[in-house]
Amino acid sequence: MMEALYIKYLCPFKKYVTLDLIGGPRPLQFRYFINMQKGATFFFVLACMAYYDNWSWTAHVYLASTLCFVLSIYQHMSVDHGIYGFIWLLKDITVPDATWQVYLTIPSAIVAVVGLGIYWVAGYIVVAHRVEASPSLGALCIMMNTLGSTLMLASDTQKYFALKYKKGLISDGWVTWSRNTNYLGEMMLYLSFALLANH
């Protein structure tokens, strides 16, 4: 019954709000808004650190993740939120997901910007509220983020190449045990951000 309600009501509502809100021209793809937000995460956290004059270990772990990404592109490692943004950009360039290549109406674009802005709350909390995470919690967050990044990247890459050469259901490799390994990875990523922010 819940699945029927979801398919009949929630899916069309979600599509309307995220793609067709109020109607009108569709000037930009959804991925541009996602990429802008994820790519700007490093600069947002750095600006918060400067504004709040917070150069603590925890703030640096959050920020270092963005710096580590630049160094780790060649080593296939990740650390935390900002790095996730850069990893996402790299993924969109190399193995783009057709899901995010849809065009949005202007009101839906505004909803996207506001919705994506919520993802910066954890970084803001860490810096503005001077959250101090223990080294053990920091290590746990880094491990969760690394594993989550691996799951997301590997399964999205498999999906891209599998669908490029043969359309249909993918049932091997990273999706052998779970249909949504990429989303499991992203849930681990965002849980690591929330844990680091103590929320």
Automatic annotation (TrEMBL):
<feature type="transmembrane region" description="Helical">
    <location>
        <begin position="64"/>
        <end position="90"/>
    </location>
</feature>
<feature type="transmembrane region" description="Helical">
    <location>
        <begin position="133"/>
        <end position="154"/>
    </location>
</feature>
<keyword id="KW-1133">Transmembrane helix</keyword>
<keyword id="KW-0812">Transmembrane</keyword>
<feature type="transmembrane region" description="Helical">
    <location>
        <begin position="102"/>
        <end position="127"/>
    </location>
</feature>
<keyword id="KW-0472">Membrane</keyword>
<protein>
    <recommendedName>
        <fullName>Steroid 5-alpha reductase C-terminal domain-containing protein</fullName>
    </recommendedName>
</protein>
